[in-house]
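This part of the workshop introduces the protein records we will be handling. To make this concrete, we reproduce a full record directly below:
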Amino acid sequence: MKRTAGLFLVLSACLFAQRPWQKIQDLSLAQIAATWQSPPPEYGPQPYYGLNGPVTLEQVQRDLDTMKRLGFTAVTVQAGYNMPFEYLSPEYFSFFRQFVAEAKRRGMRVWIVDDAGYPSGFAGGKFSSTVPDLRMQALEVVDRIPVAGGSVLHKELPPDRVSAAAVNQDGRAIPIPLHGNVLDWTAPAGTWTVLIVDHEFRTSPTRSDTNPKRVKDTTQSLEDYLDPAATAQFLAFTHEQYKRSVGDEFGKTIMGFRGDEPDYSISGLPWTPRFFDRFREIKGYDVQPYVALFAQTPSKRNPGVPVHLTPEQLRIKADYYDVFSQMFAAGFFKPQGDWCAANNLEYQVHLNHEEMQMELTRSEGSFFRDMRYVQVPGIDAIWHQIWTDTISDYPRLAASVSHVYGKPRAFTESFAAYRPVPDIKMARYILDEQFVRGVNLVEMMYFPATSGGPRPPPSFMADPAFPALAAYVRRMSYLLSMGRPDASVALFLPSSSMWLGDEKAGSQFVATERLLSEHQIDFDIVDEDALERDLKLHNGAFETLSGNRYHAVILPAPEVLSESALARLKTFASGGGKVVFLGGSPQWIYGRTIRDARKAGESDFQWATVLNSAELAPVPTPPQYPPPAPPEPQAVAPGILKAVTSAAPATVRTGAPQPALRVMKRRWKDAGVYLFFNEGAQPLHETVTLTGGNKELQIWDPQTGAISPAAGSRTRDGTAMTLDLEPYATRIVVLR
C-alpha cells in the first residue's frame, strides 16, 4: 500500500513538472521573441483582491472586468470580512466556484490565499475553536524565585514545568536538573534567581477577517507549525475543501495557493511536544535542562533577569534554533509544497521581515530551509523597504532559492502599506529594483472588492498610465522567467552565526550584498545546506539545480561553519574555485552539534583567501524610515575590492566605477540576456563590455515589445556597447 502511494506521488510530480510555467524552460531567442509581445496569463501581474463586504456575483464580474482593463492577467484572491456567507462553509465554496468560472471566462488565472488573513495557518479561527490541542506553543519563563547563597530550594513543580536555571547577580547562569517534577538545589555563594520554564499555548498575532473585532490579536491561534499533524489538519480545513469544490481547475485556471508571513512573533521559544525528542535524534544530547537559560523574553513591563551565557551555552542556543528551523521547514512548508505538487499546483509564500535576517532567524529559523520546499519563493516590499533613498538587496533571497533549487520563478508582494503611497513612476522603480535582483512574478497590494458599489481603482492603479505599467511588468516577468540564471558568484548567508546572536555576521552579509551590487557582480545567495549537499560539486564549480555554476564563494565574517561545508569548500578550491572570507575566518568548526564545535586554526583555511581585517561599513537593517539622506556609494578599501573582484569578476566591465548601475544576467539556449538598471538620480553614460556571445546585439523594450538591433564592437574580452540610461531607467540587452 505504501509503495502504491509513493508511486502515485512520483507520477503526480511528473505531471506537475510538465506544465510550462512550473519548470525551467530552455528556449531559443526566436521562441521567446514569438511569445513575449503577449505572454501567457500565468506570468501575471496580479492584484491582491479581498472579497470584503456583501459580495455578489455582479460585483465580482465588475471587478474582474476592471482588473482585465487595467492589464492584470491573474488575480490573488482572499476571503474577506463581512461576507454574506461563513468562511469555508458550503455557501462560501459555492460562491468561490462562481468566482473561478468568471475568471476563467476572462482568460485570467487565480491564486488562492490560504487563509482569511495573515499569517497563514489559523484556518479562519478553526484551530482555536475546533482543535485547540494543535495550536502554536512556546516555552517561557513563568516564575522567578530569589535564593540566597547556601540555601536549599526544594519545590514541587506543576507537571507542565519543563526546565529550570539559576542566575546570579552578575548574570552568570547555570542549568538546574529537575527530578521528575521536583526541584532540589543548593545555591552556591552569591545571590541567585531561579528561573522556571513551562510550555504554554501561545500564538503570533493573527489579522483574521473572521475576527468580529477586525483587529490583529491572539484570539484566533495559529497552528503548531512544528507539527506535521497540525499542517495536515490545516490542509484538511482549507486546501482539501477547495479541491472538492474547484479541483477540476487545479493547474488550469487555478495556479496554486498563496501563503503569508508564517512566523513565531511570540515571546519565549518556539516549541512543540515532540521537540525535545526530535532534538535528541538530531543532536544526540538533551537540551531540556538548558532552555531556561534562554527562554526568557524581556519586555518594558518585565525586564527579566540579566543573563550572560557562556560560549558553550550560546552554542547550545544555536543548536536549539538549528533544530527549530529544521522542524519548521519539515512541519509546515514541506507538507504544503508536497500537497500542491501532487495536485498540479504551486505553493507561493513569503516570510516575515526578510530584510532583517537577524530577526528572521529568531522567528523563522532559516530563510533557505523554509523556502526550499516552496515552488514560488517570495519576499514583500510593502512599507518603504525599497525606495530611491534606501539600499535593498534582500529580494535576491527569494530569487536565489529559486536558482539553487531549480525553480523558475520568485515573487513579490508589493505596495500594501507604503507611506507615502508610491505614484506610478515610483511603483515602477520599486518593481525594477526587484526585477534586477531576480524577482519575476508580481503581486500588487491592494484591490478591495467594490461590494459597496462602483468606484475607481485604488492608489496608483487609477493612473491612466497604469495599463502601460502592467504591460511592462507582464513582459518583464515573462522574459526574466525564461532560460536559466547565470550568476557565477555565491554569497554565503551565515544563519548559523546569527543563531549565536552574531550581529557582525548579519551586518557584513548585508554590506557584502551592496559591495557586489555596486560593482556589477551578479550573484546568488547560498546557505550552509546548499554548500554541504544541495549544490553539485565538480571541476572547481558548484552547480545549482537551475544549471548555473558558481566559480567563487564569498563568506562574510561567519563565526561558525560546519565541518562538511568546510570540506566541500576545500574540494571546490582544489579544483580552481575561489573562496574568500571577509572579516576573518570562522572561530568554530562544528559537526553534529554546534555545542561541541572545535576551535578553528589557521591551517583550516590555508587554501582560501582570508581578509582578517576586512570589515565593510554596515548598512542599516532595517532601512531607516524616514531615511536620513539618499545613500552614498559604499566606501571600500582597495585591498578588499581587489580581493573580491579578483575572485569574482564583474558580470559586465565598465570603463569607470558606476555604483548606481545594477546588472543581472540570464542564459537562453542561444543568447545571453542582461538587465541593466540605473538606480541613481543622475543619467548614466558608459561603455560596457558583455561576455557570452558576439554574433548579434539587440535591445528588447518591455514597454512596447519592440526588438531592435544595437551597435556593438568585438573586443578581446567580449562585445562592447554604449549604455545610456536616464535616472531610474532599465535596459534589456540580448547578445546571441
Q: What stands out?
A: Residues 311-342 form the longest helix (32 residues). DSSP finds 19 helices and 39 strands in the chain.
